Amino acid sequence: MDPAQEVLGGNRLALARLLTQVENGSSQGLAALQVLFPHTGRAHRIGVTGPPGTGKSSLVNQLALHLRRSESPRRVAILAVDPTSPFTGGAILGDRVRMRDLSGDPGVFIRSMASRGSLGGLAAATSGLAAVLDAAGFDVILIETVGAGQAEVDIARLAHTVLVVEAPGLGDDIQAIKAGILEIADILVINKADQPGVEATERALLGMLQLAHPTPHVFPGERKQHHLPDSPAMQAAALESAQFNDWIPPVQRTVATEGGGIPELAAHIEQHAAHLRANGGWERREAARLQSELDELLQQALIARWRRETPEAHYDTVLERLTQRQLSPWQAVKELLEGDWL
Amino acid sequence: MDPAQEVLGGNRLALARLLTQVENGSSQGLAALQVLFPHTGRAHRIGVTGPPGTGKSSLVNQLALHLRRSESPRRVAILAVDPTSPFTGGAILGDRVRMRDLSGDPGVFIRSMASRGSLGGLAAATSGLAAVLDAAGFDVILIETVGAGQAEVDIARLAHTVLVVEAPGLGDDIQAIKAGILEIADILVINKADQPGVEATERALLGMLQLAHPTPHVFPGERKQHHLPDSPAMQAAALESAQFNDWIPPVQRTVATEGGGIPELAAHIEQHAAHLRANGGWERREAARLQSELDELLQQALIARWRRETPEAHYDTVLERLTQRQLSPWQAVKELLEGDWL
Q1: Which B residues 56-95 touch A at CB under 8 Å?
Q2: Interface contact flag, B37 A325, Cβ < 8 Å
Q3: Sequence-ordered strand ranges (E) for B213-330
Q4: Least confident of A133-142, A217-226, B206-215
Q5: How do residues A186-219 score in pLDDT, each as one tens digit?
Q6: Minimum-distance CB partner of A88 among B33, B83, B179
Q7: Considering Cα of B44, then B55, then B197, then A53, what sign does the dihedral take?
Q8: DSSP, residue by residue, B86-109
Q9: Is B177 helix (H, G, I), strand (E, B) or coil?
Q10: Is pLDDT of B112 > 90?
């Protein structure tokens, strides 16, 4: 049977196999992804990110457990991505033993991704895995990633809802870094909230939120109230405006190891999804994600085509002249693109 | 006078102005870079990286001071790059007040780079600034970068010598992350070595080194002894082999705030440069860096050319069909590249 059809039919073994193929960028994986693509777009993709040491894995496990035990249990996939180890393909997250409560539950699927993937960067590979899990019918995909840099941001952008996880007492430097990461956060989580310093961390986060969203009468977690204008054109304009779409990220304390704050966090996630669906934000995030994937693939295809068309010896000669500093990098590119080797 | 000539002539104001132009990717900046390029390749580029909170800035300042006060003082440039804040263009490093001892010294030039640059990523922009400083005659360029991810690795790769800075007591998670970053380290620094936990950090680093370089009779900081074979062909092969080039990264404790361990660290840096020069590693690192810059520029040029040649409306139509899931991303790329809109 066709691997894509097996995955659509709920075969877990076929799913695991296909995820590996997609991660490795194999041609079977790519072929299956094309078949699966029309079946994607249903899952709620939730990014979970933040500095090391904040207990993201425990938080993700507890969220998954909560979603499984709710009145209308959701099928949950966990995708743990580690961009911090580009050489060893480090499996920091993967090595951790996942909660016993989740294992054996057919409504849960857990996957660690340690390698960089070959689909063109970690974000692209992660997106491919998320697409497979989406098509396989998981309602929620929790994408967990560690680090504090561009890779983390790229991965977080794959999600509809981004949780940024902090913990008390991680030091001033890490506090400072939050400034950048804050701008991708839809929900701020202070995990390990039973530890000393939680008030200071909360104050710091609220202070930064205040700077980012200087609206005095709105409390975190509350949506600003806006009313749609009557005319369709003005409605469209209002929907596009940043103001209408303003969502003040709530700050939620959790103690993931004991499940503390998890129901409240799950409620915030629900509210954020409802908010996105209500104002068109869901579609806009999907469109932005698909466009960046398209641009990424296009880039790869252009380079592959150029490589096929250019004799390797010509490239080597130009590179040699560059290394000898007879050509600057810009002159080298010009030589390569002008095609005088034809 | 031509900006590039002014920079070659030692005009600091022209240097500062050109660095801004190169960082912004302006056409004047690019034109000057082309003039300066043949004058590059002399400076020792030293990357300094590691997690936040390890005191990298103090360490860089003290190293610069040491190099200025040595018997044959070197001209030192400091390039502080912050890849962790892609949105705000955060100036974590830039905001810090640099040591009073360095200010006013004409043999020192300090530059913070907070924006992402538009030369195609932070690494490319950093490389452009380093090239200008190299051409301007600085003997040593200290490239300081914070974070723990791909951006950091890309930036570290611009250097001949990479220092990875750690500090005692940064927690288990951060310890684990070292596994990846270790593979780019030429020298390991334990800064803040007067703090508790320094022995544990040192043990952990030595343990990881032992795993990475399982050669029992070589101590960190010592080069493995190899003798070149007689035949030129075999010499070339030996030079290419990883074994000959093996350099066991030394582990150096420092207390940068008080200057402790800085002379020893500077000696390790000298030894590493001598090691690279002795076995052709210097040229290989230069060639690898220039090739990756060439590939990066080539990629950008290919995309720019494709954009010029493709009607925007065609792209928009394909994107719309992708968003509607009528096309998969791969089918969309195929439509865009087949040029049936011609």
Answers
A1: 83-88, 90, 92
A2: yes
A3: 251-253
A4: A217-226
A5: 999 999 999 998 998 888 888 777 776 665 444 4
A6: B179
A7: negative
A8: TTTT--HHHHSPPPTTTTT-TTEE
A9: helix
A10: no
User: What's the CA gap between B146 and B49, in Å, rounded?
Assistant: 6
Q: What is the pLDDT of residues A137-172, one digit of tens each?
A: 999 999 998 755 556 667 777 899 999 998 887 654
Measure the CA–CA gap between A224 and A279, rounded to whole angstroms: 12
Residue type, B149: G
Secondary element (H or E) of residue B243: none
Instruction: Using alpha carbons, list the distances in angstroms from residue B201 to A92, B15, B192, B229.
Output: 18, 41, 11, 39
Nearest alpha carbon to residue A177 among A263, A270, A49: A49
> Residues in chain B, how many?
342
Please check the confidence at residue B42 and state whether its pLDDT lies above 80.
yes
CB A281 within 8 A of CB A275: yes
Token pair, residue A277, equals 């669906």
Task: Enter the DSSP assignment of B82.
Answer: -
User: Among A73-77, A268-272, B96-100, B161-165, where is mean pLDDT lowest?
Assistant: B96-100
What element of type H or E holds B286? Answer: helix B281-309
pLDDT of residue A336: 93
Q: pLDDT tens, B162-207?
A: 999 988 876 544 444 455 567 788 999 999 999 998 998 888 888 7
For residue A39, the 8-state DSSP code is: G
Q: For residues B219 and B224, give the distance between their C-alpha atoms in angstroms, rounded to a whole number.
A: 9
Is B244 a residue whose pLDDT tops 70?
Answer: no
Structure tokens at A121: 């960067």
Which amino acid is located at B106 in the chain? P
CA angle B315, B321, B327 (to 5 degrees): 105
pLDDT band at A6 (very low <50, low <70, confident <90, very high): very high
Given CB atoms, is A323 within the 8 Å cutoff of chain B?
A: yes
Tell me which chain B residues have a C-beta less than 8 angstroms from the C-beta of A122. Answer: 150
Q: Which residues of A fall within a CB distance of 8 Å from B328?
A: 33-34, 37-38
Question: Is the CB of A238 inside 8 Å of chain B's CB atoms?
Answer: no
Contacts of A200 (CB under 8 A, 6+ apart): A168
**For residue B130, which amino acid is it?**
A
Which of A175, A220, A229, A207 has the alpha carbon at shortest distance from A54? A175
* Cα A138 to Cα A21, A31, A68, B309, distances in angstroms: 19, 21, 12, 41
A to B CB pairs, distance under 8 Å: 197
User: What is the value of pTM for the model shown?
Assistant: 0.70
Q: Read off φ and ψ for residue A310, nearest 5 degrees.
A: -110, 130
Range with the poorest average pLDDT among A75-79, B149-153, B166-170: B149-153
| CA separation for the pair A164, A157 (Å, rounded) | 12
Q: How close is the nearest chain B Cα to the Cα of A181, in Å?
A: 7
Residue B237 CB partners (closer than 8 Å, separation 6+): B229
Helices (H), chain A: 3-8, 12-23, 27-36, 56-69, 92-95, 122-135, 150-156, 172-181, 198-212, 232-240, 262-279, 281-309, 312-323, 329-338
Contacts of A300 by beta carbon, 8 Å cutoff, 6+ apart:
A120
Scanning B11-50 for CB atoms below 8 A from A yields 30, 33-34, 37-38, 40-41
Strands (E), B147-231: 161-166, 187-190
- What average pLDDT is seen over chain B? 80
**Do A96 and A57 touch, CB atoms closer than 8 A?**
yes
- Judged against a pLDDT cut of 90, whether residue B154 lies above it is answered with no
Closest of B110, B126, B121, B130 to residue B37, by C-alpha: B130
Coil, strand or helix at A226: coil
